[in-house]
Design brief:
Elements (H helix, E strand, L loop, with lengths): L2 H11 L4 E5 L4 H7 L3 E4 L3 H14 L6 E5 L3 H5 L1 H9 L4 E7 L13 H4 L6 E4 L6 H13 L6 E6 H5 L21 H13 L3 E5 L1 H5 L3 H11 L3 E3 L14 E4 L6 H9 L2 E5 L18 E5 L13 E4 L2 H16 L10 H20 L8 H11 L5 E4 L4 H6 L11 E2 L9 H12 L4 E7 H7 L3 H6 L5 E6 L14 H7 L8 H7 L3 E5 L2 H16 L4 E6 L13
Parallel strand pairs: 1-2, 1-3, 3-4, 4-6, 5-6, 7-8, 7-10, 8-9, 10-11, 11-12, 13-14, 13-15, 15-16, 16-18, 17-18
Helix pairs in contact: 1-2, 3-5, 3-17, 9-13, 11-13, 12-14, 15-22
This protein binds thiamine diphosphate (TPP) and magnesium ion.
Thiamine diphosphate (TPP) binds next to helix 16 and helix 18.
C-alpha cells in the first residue's frame, strides 16, 4: 500500500469518520476511499476550527483532523492551530510537505519547525513504512495527559511511497489514566473541612474528563458553591442551586461575591491560567488544584494543595475521602449557602433585567440573548460566543444545563473562531441545536464558511450582532480614538442578511424587539429542515457588561 492509504486506514481505525480539508492534498481522496467523509472549508483557519469544535464536544474521545496542502495551506492554517494550542484542544494536523529531496531549503515552509511552538508534539515522516509508528505516537499524545494540537508533516513522495502490506500493523491507542496520591487527597479534604467559605472553580478538564456527575456529587456532599472558568462553562449545570455561573473577563455577581469571601478556592480540572479572559483569583486566598498535568501546578499562581490525576478519578477519591472523614451524609455546617447564592442572584438579575428585557431600538444584545434562551431548548443546544463584546455579554447570562451546552473559549480570542467551532460541534452532535453569536467584525473574518455549512448540509444558526462598529474601540479606550474621529476607523459596513442569502442560508434582518422571537423560531425551523440560518440583529453599541472584579 502507499503512504496515503496507510494514514487513511489508521484514521479509520482510530474512529475518524470525517476529515476537515482544503486541497491540493492527495490524502483527501485516499481517506474518502476508506469511507471517511471529506468536508471542504473555504479557508484553512476555519477548517482547523471545525476540527477543534468537533474534538471539544467529543471530550477528545473522537479527534478532529485537518489536512491541507504544503506551502500556502500549511501557512494559512497557522491561526487556527495557535488558537487550539492556547485553549489546549486535541486536534490532528496533517499538512503536505515538499518532497524529501527538497525539504529544509528556503522558501519551503517546514511545518514541523514552524509549528513547534504551537503544538503539543510534532513529527516528520521520512518513509512510508514509518507511518504506523508515527501515527501511534501522534494518537498517544492526543489521547493522553494534557491536551493540545499534534502535527505530522508528511512529504508528498512519502504519501505516494509504496511499502509492503505485511509491514502495516496498527492497533488504536488506549487511553491511560491515573489517580492522585491518596495523601494529597486526604490533605485536600482536611483543608476543605477546615475552610469557612470554600469555592470550587471548575475548568474545561471537567468537560474533557466527563466528570460533571462526580463534580455535582462532590459539590452537593460538601455543600460548596461552584463557579466555572470560561472554558469550563457548562461543566456544572447553571440551574443548580450551588451554581455561581462563570467567571471570565465578565461574569456574574455571584462569582464575585463568593470569590471575594472565599478562604479556599478549589480548582477542578483547571490550569489556573492567567489570561485577559479569565477571572483573576483574589490575592492571598489559598488555592487547591486538581489537574491531570503536573505542569499546571504552580504555573501562574502559587498552589497550596495539589492533586495530580484524571479529574473523574480524583473526584471519586475526594468523594470517598470526604465520606471517610465526615460520614456518608457529607457536610452540614454551611447549610445556608444555597440561600445566600439565591439572594445574590436575585440582586444580580434585579440589576440586569432591564437590559435583558429592553425595548430599545437599535436592539440591546441582552434582549437578543434573553429571547434566544426562551425560544430554543437550552438543554438540547450548544452555543458559543465570538470575541469582543458578544463574548462578555453572553457569558454571564447563558445558563447551560448539560456538558458542552456552552463552548467557552479564549486564552487567545481570534475573531471569527466561533463559526468554525459551531460547524465542528454540529458535525459531532447533529441532533443538537448549534448556535454561534458573532459581531460584525467577527463575521468579516470568517463569515464565508457559512457557505461550507450550506454546501455540506451542516445546519447551524449564526446570530450576527450588527452594531456597525467594533464596540468600545473609540473613547474611553485608546485604540482608535483619534483615527476614529478623523477617519471613522471603527465603523464597518455590510448587509449580512444579503450575504447569507447569497450563500444559500436562511437569513433575516431583525430591527425591532417584537421581531426577535418569531425570527428565532423561523431560523430554528430552517435548521430543522437542514438549512443553515443567519439572523442579523441590528443592535446598538452596548458598553455595559457585568464585570465586578477590578472595581
Ligand atoms: C484576529 C483578531 N484580531 C483582532 C482582535 C481584537 N478584537 C477583539 S474584539 C474586536 C472587535 C470586535 O467587533 P465586533 O465583532 O463587531 O463585535 P462587537 O464587540 O462590536 O460586538 C477586535 C478587533 C481579535 N480578537 N482577533
Ligand atoms: Mg460590532
Amino acid at each position: 500500500m502507499n503512504g496515503d492509504t496507510a494514514i487513511a486506514k489508521i484514521l479509520k481505525a482510530e474512529g475518524v469518520d470525517w476529515l476537515s480539508c482544503f486541497p491540493a492534498q492527495s490524502l483527501i481522496s485516499a481517506a474518502a476511499e476508506q469511507g471517511i467523509r471529506p468536508i471542504l472549508c473555504r479557508q484553512e483557519r476555519a477548517g482547523v476550527n471545525f476540527a477543534d469544535g468537533f474534538s471539544r464536544v467529543n471530550n477528545g474521545s473522537k479527534i478532529g483532523v485537518f489536512t491541507m496542502q504544503a506551502g500556502p495551506g500549511a501557512e494559512n492554517a497557522f491561526g487556527g492551530v495557535a488558537q487550539a494550542f492556547t485553549d489546549s484542544v486535541p486536534i490532528l494536523l496533517l499538512p503536505g510537505s515538499a518532497p524529501t529531496t527538497a525539504s529544509g531549503i528556503h522558501p519551503g515552509f517546514q511545518s514541523v519547525d514552524h509549528y513547534k511552538g504551537i503544538t503539543k508534539w510534532s513529527g516528520y515522516v521520512n518513509h512510508a513504512s514509518r507511518i504506523p509508528d508515527f501515527m501511534r505516537r501522534a494518537f498517544t499524545q492526543l489521547k493522553n495527559g494534557s491536551k493540545g494540537p499534534v502535527l505530522l508533516e508528511i512529504p508528498q513522495d512519502v504519501q505516494d511511497q509504496e511499502f509492503p502490506d505485511s509491514d502495516f500493523k496498527y492497533e488504536p491507542v488506549k487511553v491511560t489514566k491515573s489517580q492522585a496520591n491518596p495523601d494529597d487527597v486526604r490533605d485536600l479534604i482536611k483543608a476543605i473541612l477546615a475552610a469557612d467559605s470554600p469555592v470550587i472553580n471548575a475548568g474545561q478538564g471537567v468537560l474533557y474528563g466527563v466528570a460533571t456527575k462526580e463534580l455535582i456529587e462532590f459539590a452537593e456532599l460538601s455543600n460548596i458553591p461552584v463557579m466555572t472558568t470560561l472554558a469550563g462553562k457548562s461543566s456544572f449545570p447553571e440551574n443548580h442551586a450551588l451554581s455561581l455561573g462563570a467567571g471570565a473577563n465578565s461574569g456574574t455577581l455571584m462569582v464575585d461575591h463568593f470569590r471575594r469571601k472565599s478562604d479556599l478556592i478549589i480548582g477542578v480540572g483547571t490550569s489556573f491560567t492567567k489570561a485577559p479572559f479569565s477571572t483573576l483569583m483574589p490575592k492571598g486566598t489559598p488555592l487547591a488544584q486538581i489537574t491531570d498535568s503536573p505542569d499546571h501546578i504552580n504555573k501562574d499562581y502559587k498552589i497550596d494543595l495539589g492533586c495530580v490525576g484524571d479529574v473523574k478519578l480524583v473526584l471519586r477519591q475526594m468523594i470517598e475521602e470526604l465520606k471517610r472523614q465526615v460520614g456518608d451524609k457529607g457536610i452540614t455546617k454551611s447549610a445556608g449557602v444555597a440561600d445566600e447564592i439565591k439572594s445574590v442572584r436575585d440582586e444580580f438579575y434585579k440589576e440586569w433585567t432591564p437590559r435583558l428585557t429592553s425595548d430599545e431600538i437599535p436592539l440591546s444584545p441582552y434582549r437578543v440573548f434573553n429571547e434566544l434562551a426562551s425560544n430554543v431548548n437550552v438543554a438540547e443546544t450548544i452555543i458559543t460566543h465570538d470575541s469582543g463584546y458578544p463574548r462578555d455579554q453572553l457569558v454571564p447570562f447563558w445558563k447551560p444545563v448539560t456538558p458542552w451546552g456552552y463552548m467557552g473559549w479564549g486564552k487567545s480570542t481570534q475573531l471569527g473562531y466561533g463559526l468554525g467551532l459551531a460547524i465542528g460541534a454540529k458535525i459531532a452532535k447533529p441532533e443538537k441545536q448549534v448556535i454561534n453569536i458573532m459581531g460584525d467584525a467577527a463575521f468579516g473574518m470568517a463569515g464565508l464558511d457559512i457557505e461550507t455549512a450550506v454546501r455540506s448540509k451542516i445546519p447551524i444558526l449564526t446570530v450576527v450582532l450588527n452594531n456597525g462598529v467594533m464596540t468600545n474601540y473609540t473613547s474611553p479606550r485608546p485604540y482608535l480614538e483619534y483615527a476614529a474621529k478623523e477617519w471613522d476607523l471603527h465603523k464597518l459596513g455590510g448587509d449580512y442578511t444579503k450575504i447569507a442569502e447569497g450563500m444559500g442560508a436562511f437569513s433575516k434582518k431583525v430591527t425591532t424587539p417584537d421581531e426577535i422571537a418569531p425570527a428565532i423560531r423561523e431560523a430554528v425551523n430552517a435548521n430543522k429542515s437542514g438549512q443553515p440560518a443567519l439572523l442579523e440583529m441590528m443592535t446598538k453599541e452596548e458598553l455595559n457588561v457585568p464585570k465586578y472584579w477590578g472595581k
